Structures are given as structure tokens and as C-alpha cells.
Amino acid sequence: MSDLMPAPGSAPGPGVPKPVAPPRPSERAWRPDVPIDVALTLAPHRRGGSDPAWRRTPDGAVWRTARTPDGPATLRIVTIERAGEVRAQAWGPGAEWSLERLPGLLGADDDVAGFADLLAALARSARAGETEQARRAMFVARLAARHPGLRIGRSLRVFEALVPAVLEQKVVGREAWRAWRWLVRRYGEAAPGPAPEGMTVIPPPEVWRQIPSWDWHRAGAEAVRARTVVNAARHAEKLEATCGGAGSAEADRLLRALPGIGVWTSAEVRQRAHGDPDAPSVGDYHLPSIVGWALTGQKTDDAGMLALLEPFRGHRHRVIKLIELSGIRPPARGPRMPARDYRSF
């Protein structure tokens, strides 16, 4: 044995780093009243296949980072089917905050029973001659039966949902996700704990306010979207306060009062941060055609979509979500929306 090597079992010599024990996670086990599909419920928080703040590992666990009021956190969630429970581990200053609000994130407060009652009432409307309305209700009920574990959860993090929604305005998904990925990796911080490689925590609002124009350009976000995010960052505290009881309607009012934020962006934020099942994404490029085709076999516009969804008021976003999950789409006959790369402008 070399004189430079310590004997087996001995303490490391000078200059040899001691092994660092992995940080101990905070943990919680939660038993929901009904089965919950964790990955499906958390999927709206994922922004593209390489989102640095969301990951699903081969063991079935969903990893998610967040910037909580207490600081950054990494959350690992897995379903233990044989025990009928969800188990979560969290790391970082925001670990306890994240675990305390785990049920809400997974839709514990989602009014699924109310939705079932609504569908049943609409199905009974056939007796009053509303046969087409009843047919649509039964169609939606069949879609819901395919995804019994879907819940509309709430993250309670408005700005975290707002930034990627603004980046997705009027562009194709892959363009927005590229900008989100570039900015979060450049200005965020490494996820606490043993998160999968490359996971990052979204920067705080004060950092977004300081991102220089050339880095927005390098990310592929033009000046309009950059200004919208920077301005929203100045009002982040007031926006976050709507999760403390003011609710989705007040969040809608405040969001739409900000330049560059309209009905579509507000809905996308409230769906995720407030868990609003009745916030339809009006103004979406594809949704009206998809909803119209699924419910009537004909494409429609925003006004037509809202008219078709009116009987489902209270759950209009949920109905749209179920239709999207069905895979039903009108035939693709027109040109695709092109991806623009602002980095070359």
C-alpha cells in the first residue's frame, strides 16, 4: 500500500475532502379521499420537455422547484398505490411551506363532486327537450371517466405562473419554452437537495427586473414580452397577495390592469396559481377549433366556444382540459403557425 494512501477504515488525510452527507429532506405523507393522478394534475406546470423547474424520473416521481415566500424549494412527489397515499419530500428554505400546501397543489379543494352533479343535471335536461345539450354533457362525462385522477390544483405562486404565460403569448410553444429554459437557467439558482441534474429555481421578481435587454434578445423574447414581465415583476407582491383570500376574480382584475396582460394570460395564470376550474383560455390560437370540433363536429371561434361551454359554467377550463386530453382534433388543412427566432433579428 502506498504511503500516501490512508489505511482502510482510517480518517482521510490532510487535503482529502470529507464526504458530504446529502441534506435531509422534510417529508409528508398524505392520503387523499379519492385517487389522484399526480403527474397529470401537475402537468400544467411543466413548460416543455426540458423545463428546468419540472421533471419526471423513471421511478414515476415528479420533481418540481418553486420560489416560495420562505425561499427556494425542491419538491419530490410520488404515489404509493398500495397504501393509497401520496408521499412527498422537500428540500430548501421553502420545504415546509411546500409540504404544508401539498394537498392544495394536488387539487384537494377541487370541486370534482360539483362537476359530476352538473353533468348529471345537464344529462337530465334531455327530458326538457335539450337533447343536444344532454348529448354534450354525456360526452364530457365519458371524457371525465377516462381520467378519474385529474384534479385542478393550485400552486399559490402567481408570478411563477405569469412569466412563462407571458413568454407564450402569440408564439408557438417551442419558441416560448426555449426562452423560459434559457432565462431560468441563466438567472435562476440550482435546485436545493438531490434534484435531478439541471433543475433550477425560478429567479425572484427583483432579478427579472434587472435582466438586460440583450439577454432577453439572446433568449428569443422580443421587447414587448420582456417589458410585460419586467412591469409585472414590479407588482409581484400585490399579485401574490391574491392567493391569500382575494381569489381568482381579484387576480383577474389586477392582472388585466397591467400592460401586456389580457384575458388569455390572466386565465393561464389563474388556472395554475389559483386552481380556477372556470378560467377558459379565450384568445388561444387552437382551442376554439378543438372545442368546437369535439362538441359539434364543426370549428368555431372564441365567441362560439364560450357559447358551447356556457352550460358548463363553473368548470369551463376543466371541460377544455378534458377535451384536450381526449386527443380529438379537427383535420389539419391550413398552414402551421411558424416559429420565429428573435435571436437573429
From TrEMBL:
Catalytic activities: Hydrolysis of alkylated DNA, releasing 3-methyladenine, 3-methylguanine, 7-methylguanine and 7-methyladenine
Cellular-component GO terms for this entry: cytoplasm; protein-DNA complex
Protein name, per record: DNA-3-methyladenine glycosylase II
MF annotations from Gene Ontology: alkylated DNA binding; DNA-3-methyladenine glycosylase activity; DNA-7-methylguanine glycosylase activity
Highest taxon in the source lineage: Bacteria
Region (Disordered): 1-31
Species the sequence originates in: Sphaerimonospora thailandensis
InterPro entries the record matches: Alkylbase_DNA_Glycosylase/TA (IPR051912), DNA_glycosylase (IPR011257), HhH-GPD_domain (IPR003265)
